[in-house]
Write a structure and sequence with these properties.
single chain, 154 residues, alpha+beta, 5-stranded antiparallel beta sheet, 5 helices
Length: 154
């Protein structure tokens, strides 16, 4: 038996997560966004990568994590979570409670999918307006050769 144990599959690889995080910051600079924080979670909802630009405010890492965590928690991109937060406030309040307050149901939380549609993880970005955060996430996921799922149907 190998020591340490091997064979765990957690979706997104470290290399992919690092590429997404650096590409997101590069896209933020290209778009002249406010300083960004990028969080990449694997398919188990665990932190795989996090980068925080100089000038980010105190809560940006928690907000970015919450955007990605919310997407992973329900399996929907942030846009769908935002719609559900408006339509089903009671359910989303319960979801937030169950998630320990760690779910942020707004754009900027983007699922990362493989070519076959399997969810590999999620990206959360915080720093600018949610739509702009989402644009940086989508560009970064695509730069890594993966598919972005914002919660909108194309």
């Amino acid at each position: 038996m190998p020591n340490p144990p091997t064979g765990f599959q957690h979706g997104i690889t470290l290399r992919q997560a690092q590429k997404i995080a650096t590409a997101a910051l590069a896209e933020g600079r290209r778009l002249e966004l406010a300083p960004l924080t990028v969080v990449v979670l694997d398919a188990a909802g665990q932190l795989k990568a996090m980068l925080k630009e100089d000038g980010c405010s105190l809560m940006r890492p928690a907000i970015a994590h919450g955007k990605a965590f919310g997407a992973m928690g329900l399996g929907f991109g942030g846009r769908e979570l935002a719609r559900r937060a408006q339509a089903m406030q009671g359910f989303m309040n319960a979801f937030s409670d169950l998630a320990g307050g760690s779910a942020v149901p707004v754009p900027g939380g983007v699922l990362v999918r493989a070519a076959n549609g399997n969810i590999l993880g999620a990206v959360g970005i915080s720093g600018d307006a949610s739509d702009k955060d989402e644009a940086a996430a989508v560009a970064a996921i695509e730069a890594a050769g993966l598919t972005a799922d914002t919660g909108d149907s194309a």
